[in-house]
Design a protein that fits this description.
434 Repressor (Amino-terminal Domain); DNA-binding; six-stranded parallel β-sheet; Rossmann fold; alpha/beta; six-stranded mixed β-sheet; homodimer; 13 helices
Chain lengths: 338, 338
DNA sequence: ATAAAAATCCAAAACGTTTCGGATTTTGTT
DNA sequence: AACAAAATCCGAAACGTTTTGGATTTTTAT
């Protein structure tokens, strides 16, 4: 493995000069620089990032901390798309990304800070962690720069990217209302997510603005789980037969509601309209295809990485990025659409 | 940031002793070891992996090299599940994983070896690269340990994990034959994948063993693309109306064939049976649900990581792992199943 | 021709760890 | 008590880079 020392010897200069030549400093003669570059190429040199990181005290590596990346969690590929986006930006600016998977067992033995410092990441992106996750507290207190996805916490060292979940939910519900629905139920996610809170708010705002009453009993907790949402939908539909539409805080839960409808023999969308949230791949492949509020998850990852690296390099204007959502109308709300 | 030097000072011993105490060497008194550990904990010490990697000449990091991780490639989450598996094993044995995304533009500027050496990975896993990828050649020639997924190349430093694709395809086709189908078409993937070759072989073997003729013209190239498969299916079904079943080398292509059937007004499975390969998430959500040959992609990633790390630590018995596949019978081949 | 300025180079220290070879102390044996 | 053996410790070098602060050479201005 060739080092700058080898190059220095071959070129008859000091290692200082090699380093400075390769790093584009101006205090090295252009002719010697060319010679050094030539020799480096010949010797098939590649710099040792460990050594560099050691002396520069940064690794040009960021950590992506996801929660519960298991065999099962692969169904909703939210995590994956975010990851792809992060990876995209990171590789554009020549950083590396290392993936941390936080399982509850692991967390007990190693703190967030330890994890980050040990792997020498310059900063971290956190995705999919719940607001009651012990890591979250630590993040805010630690001095390691980090960007949260869908958790609105901001400090000197932490920023976040999210979408406007209130508006997104509102758009979904307004769509249902515009179709004539007056008795709309909502399946929300668990309470340990900010998005649940906000989507509920959007739901309420839409009703209010349309002059419709809000009923606590028309909101159920589906815990972001397909089966759980199915059960809740069955319960609601039997207890409250006046319901003609469901707004679900995730597509996965909407799938559960679709199953419930099928079980109860309700035709979609004629007898029951359903709209989800996220626009996961599955959404466009179900029968009928699912209307939803699309989040650009790839963009969320991309922007998170961009924000983090801007923060690292001290050129972030603000520490918050809010992305747009888009209403996708498919046949689970409107017959013969598309 | 505390270092072993700080600990040494606080404990009144040399840095050598601190290092050896923390690393469990036997030539340090148990009492002083406890003291050192205690102090390390107090000072909130975490070792600098860069420094360690520098002197030990290994990083305990492996690279996962995937091809074309873009916004679009997210549909078939093969890559993601493999990644999850890799991540799982890697974190079990306290390694790190860094993700490399090889786009064609990047490849021109940096060779595989450069990529790996620069990031100081100890070894690499390659997934989703085509057999004509310039990287592949390099891998075999380089001395960096690596594990390929679904590409059967073996050498002193390279191993692979795969499934038995011949057998898998055979099982699928035998299933169709057992249902009485005699005119079975195949939509294969592009020729730049070993799996295409092998699945074709399985297709032929199944026909042969059943005493059925093999017709070249019943095999089309769907290039692993949904749209392309749809076009080819339409073409085949109109040119060869005797076809009653399709075997597709990927689920994504099977989705294309389902669309084609829908367009041509053919009922599935009564008039046309369809079986895919992979068992992607979508497969169980389509109408009708898609029969397929399931590959445990998570396990593939897990085993790949395991094999690689065994190779790195010199305790790999063999450098090949072949996993099992499973026939999943759903309603695209058998009515009212499940 | 000479002084000042600019261009070009380099030795040495530093980053935080591991490890080699040996030094010192303690324990065991006779 | 004396010596050997075992246990415990440590100094210094090494890993490959960047950077500081100056040294040397060349160019420019007078």
């Amino acid at each position: 493995m060739t080092t700058i020392k080898d190059i220095a010897k071959a070129a008859g200069v000091s290692i200082t000069t090699v380093s400075r030549a390769l790093n584009g400093y101006s205090d090295v003669n252009e002719k010697t620089r060319q010679k050094i570059i030539e020799i480096a190429k010949q010797l098939n040199y590649s710099p040792n990032t460990l050594a560099r990181g050691l002396v520069m005290n940064k690794s040009k590596t960021i950590g992506l901390l996801v929660s519960g990346l298991t065999r099962e969690s692969t169904k909703d590929n939210f995590t994956f798309e975010v990851l792809a986006g992060v990876n995209q930006y990171v590789s554009e600016v020549d950083y590396d990304m290392v993936l941390f998977n936080t399982t509850s067992t692991k967390q007990r033995e190693k703190t967030y800070t330890q994890l980050c410092r040990e792997r020498r990441v310059d900063g971290a992106i956190l995705q999919g962690i719940r607001v009651d996750d012990p890591y979250l507290q630590e993040v805010v207190e630690s001095d390691i720069p980090c960007v949260l996805i869908d958790i609105p916490i901001e400090s000197e060292t932490v920023g976040y990217v999210t979408t406007d979940n209130v508006l997104g939910a509102k758009k979904a519900v307004q769509h249902l209302i515009s179709l004539g629905h007056r008795h709309i139920a909502m399946i929300n996610g668990y309470e340990f997510a900010f998005v649940s809170e906000q989507r509920l708010k959007g739901f309420q705002e839409a009703l209010l603005e349309a002059g419709l009453p809000f009923h606590e009993h028309l909101v159920a907790n589906g815990a972001f789980k397909e089966e759980r949402a199915e059960q809740e939908a069955v319960r609601l539909l039997t207890q409250r037969p006046e319901i003609t539409a469901f707004f679900c805080a995730s597509d996965l839960m909407a799938l559960g509601v679709m199953k419930a409808a099928k079980t109860l023999g309700k035709r979609i969308p004629e007898e029951l309209a359903i709209i989800g949230y996220d626009d996961i791949i599955l959404a466009s492949y179900t029968t009928p295809p699912l209307s939803t509020i699309a989040q650009n998850k790839f963009a969320m990852g991309y922007e998170a990485a961009k924000l983090l690296i801007e923060m690292l390099e001290g050129k972030a204007q603000s520490r918050v990025r809010v992305l747009e959502t888009e209403l996708k109308i498919r046949e689970s709300t409107v017959k013969n659409h598309g």
